[in-house]
Amino acid sequence: MGKCVLVLIVIFGLAACSGGYAPVAERSINSKTSNSNSRPLPESGSYRVRKGDTLYSIAWRYSLDYRALARLNNIDSRYLIYVGQTLRLQSVQPTVTKTSPVGASLPLVVTPLGGSGSAYASDSAGSGAPQVGSTGSNTASVPDKPRAPATLVRAPAKPQVVPAQKLTWRWPAEGPLLNGFSSTATKGINIAGKAGDPVIAAGPGRVVYAGDGLRGYGILVIINHNQEFLSAYAHNSRVFVKENDMVNGGDKIAEVGSSGAARDMLHFEIRRDGQPVDPLRYLPKR
């Protein structure tokens, strides 16, 4: 009888110890987590750059405008950042852009593939690596340069404004709508689908992020459409584009999946000047 009691105590003790969760560092691309969307600013008011980050992905993480973030940290228009670099976040204010009616002509920001100014991750920032420089009197003081050896983080090439053209939005997936927009929860919409269903670009632009570095989004693609709008496509199973690729509206950029989600679906967001807006205001009715 005593042995049975001892065995039961051991079993219950083991069960109690197994209730924890794996640390963030051990999560996999296919981990089933809910979409955490944007995070509150850290108490320190700063962020330490990690490998795989881009200025766009950091701004997206905290619902900031990437241009304001660059100005605050005296980062020029090449948007180069380095692993280990500390970026200030707290003083970032949204960039106010003149409101244009939905569907109005907007300048499209594009960068030719292979254009000068693009930079990708390397083991060290050698003498030939571009350096972050001053952009004028409207920027903050120059941050300390990273100590060698430093790793250059992938950064998009300098955008070029081409003649304005009409930005026409389209649905990024064909499935039914699972839930609508919430400014405090999802900050986007969820569209049902099956694994492998095509995910298309909602409009023309340049891919500024493709990866799984933003927790809660799984495998994510972010497209810069023009000086106001960016869009994001989350929980993909496969991605067919890379950073700095130019895409047209309707191009297949990924396939539906469940990375970072509990089911197969597409999570879609639109950001205007860094702030989440309801995609249903811009997508055509169906």
Automatic annotation (TrEMBL):
Residue stretches in coiled coil: none
GO cellular component, as recorded: cell division site; cell outer membrane
Xref: Gene3D superfamilies: Glucose Permease (Domain IIA), LysM domain
Compositional bias ranges of the Polar residues kind: 132-141
Highest taxon in the source lineage: Bacteria
UniProt cross-references to Pfam families, sorted A to Z: LysM (PF01476), Peptidase_M23 (PF01551)
Region (Disordered): 120-147
Low complexity: bias regions: 120-129
InterPro entries noted in UniProt: Cell_wall_metabolism_enzyme (IPR050570), Dup_hybrid_motif (IPR011055), LysM (IPR018392), LysM_dom_sf (IPR036779), M23ase_b-sheet_dom (IPR016047)
CDD domains assigned to the protein according to its UniProt record, in alphabetical order: LysM, M23_peptidase
Boundaries of every LysM domain copy: 45-89
Family: Belongs to the E.coli NlpD/Haemophilus LppB family.
Protein name according to UniProt: LysM domain-containing protein
Protein's organism: Marinobacterium aestuarii
